Amino acid sequence: MNKPQKKGLVPALRFPEFQNAGAWEDYQLGQCLSRHPEYGINAPAVPYTENLPTYIRITDISDDGQIRQDQRVSVAKGVTDENYLEYGDIVLARTGASVGKSYKYRTEDGRLVFAGFLIRVKPNEEKLNSELLFQFLSTERYWHWVNFISARSGQPGINGNEYASLPIQLPPTVKEQQKIADCLASIDDLITAETQKLAALKIHKKGLMQQLFPAEGETVPRLRFPEFRDAGDWESQKLEGLAKRGSGHTPNKAESSYYNGGIKWVSLADSNKLDNGYIYETKIQISNNGLKNSSAVLHPSGTVIVSRDAGVGKSAILHSEMAVSQHFIVWVCDQSKLLNWFLYYILQILKPTFEMIAVGSTIKTIGLPYFKDLCIFIPSVEEQQKIADCLSSVDALIEAQGERIDALKLHKKGLMQQLFPVMEEVEA
To answer: How many Cβ atoms are within 10 Å of 265's Cβ, its own excluded?
Structure first.
């Protein structure tokens, strides 16, 4: 039997004008740079000011390769002309949990100086299109390499020499590189535009909630539906008198028979599913044995829950019958007095308050007495329904927009898998 040989590197999808351009070629990243990878400066950050350059650190780069605009800082000392990022420069995280993360400099981001835990690479544009490199840095092949290289020690890290050794496959002409880069960048632009629409919807919802509920010290909202403008003040009532309060428990984790029994059980592992209206599924399920041999109880569908410690203030509505851990407070509303969706939105409004009053050195917690004495302002059930319906419709728009963005990202991922060649071996 002959030894396996590598096929010529050819992507599954190629633009028509490059169908006969030949196989892609193997390089190391260092062969395609205008200079060796460079480390950033080690200087303290200072509060952001327009008079000083922006200081970009590992923590300032988002997962999608953008600069986090809400946490900009500046740098005042130790900066030379060489420390400024230029068009086409890419910086790579070299240590910690973010190792491998990348950012491509854009002139619209202003004057940027990169910090010491970042490494700059400068593509030689006669050999390597910088946008194509940036797109390659989000492929599964790249991240497989990052995980392999950085897994050699307890603290993940990749140095400049190692980044220079990064294997990269390139088409034979820069023109084809540019075509691929332009295609993928156009999808990125579309994702960015749709993401901005999503952010605008969330801002709209936040403003709407601030107007549909009374501000602190007031008893009527600033914005009221026409049919309720003469309905009078909202009434302050104890939540205890409007809904039946409960909690939950964690069955003994040492007893395997207490788990994987098909009963949905909301725990801290489901924190990322909260604040999205209904919770449909849970990461962990318990059994009837677990239910019988613990203080956990089944709560009916429609029950409103809120986290009182880790992820404090996050809330949701149970879509079906579920149990919860002791980290949650639950309410079963008397629907003749308080609608569950209205309570859910009240809890969303109160979330900053919950975060502020939680106490504890390691994990902040809200004690049970607070919830026993909690008072809320409510209008008639009819007005509650109108407000809940209004906000639910905005939530539906937000959800649809999020799904649109997810679909675009999935489309791009599939496109990248076809536009970049797959390494294969075949029998000769």
So the answer is: 26
